[in-house]
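Dock manganese (II) ion; give full complex structure.
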Amino acid sequence: MMRIKNNMKIFDDVLKKIKESENIIITSHVNPDGDAIGASLGLLLGLEKLFSDLNTTKHMRIVLQDKYPDTTNFLKYINKIEIYDENNKNYNCDLIIFVDSADIKRTGKIANLAKNVFTINFDHHITNPSFANLNYIKDISSTSEIIFKFLNFSEIEIDKDIAECLYTGLINDTGNFSHDNVTKDTFYMAGKLIEAGVNNSKIVSKFLKNKSYAAIKLIGESLFNMKFFKEKKLAYFYLPYEELQKYNGRKEDTENIVEKLIEYNEANVALFLREERDGVIKGSMRSKIDNIDVSQISGIFGGGGHKKAAGFSSSSTEKEILNEILKNL
Ligand SMILES: [Mn+2]
């Protein structure tokens, strides 16, 4: 009971702060995924509804460092999402709400806007250091599930447009209801969103069964060239930048690779490394067993996430990273 009370207290403080702010920016992490987009847009639409019901005008916007993925183009109000422009000085605000941002650095250049501004942090990554003035961090399926709880708490009606955003976040972060972050509450939420008008198979088609040519080809390459380290039960694939370019691919085209690697029946852990244009290596990890916590292993490189799904970024070489991970498994 106590826990619920505390949660409510934070939601109450957050709602008060939102109501007394005039100029609000909602943001999320770089290279945004379905949860980052779903949670930010669902929250914005919810707040717009709240203030229109209260006959109050607020300046509210979503600003992200990177463009949303093409797979979220189908969301009705996706064009409300703005891409951060360094030359535009007009980012004055009195409140920044971070969603799905495991660390303030994960928001890239947007982090600079948060100096001397009140901040709120809604997130579900256990490694989140509670970097904001008000933090609601809960180890549940997705940030979209947190936004669902917050909108309910605030008595904001979840219409079909909001529901489609939150549903997209839910299927993104649960691997279409397949990960172990799926609980009774997750299904309760899914049920409520369907009640609000979501068509499950439409969202699954538009969001998941909508991969680019590059994404399909890269999944093929990763499975064909996967290495398996038997003693550590690690499935591994490395994608150099030139390989990505071969298909004219973008980083979002590589998003499903690690999920495919972990499907190998002998594997307990999967590691996918991808080289960026500047030589920095991005790592994604998945674990299938309880005693391997990949958020801890990612922490060696300054990354983090969840026990069974985590990521990092490193300027070490591919070999150095792989060896370090093999040593720690
Ligand atoms: Mn998330």
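Observed: The CA atoms of residues 91 and 113 lie 7 Å apart.
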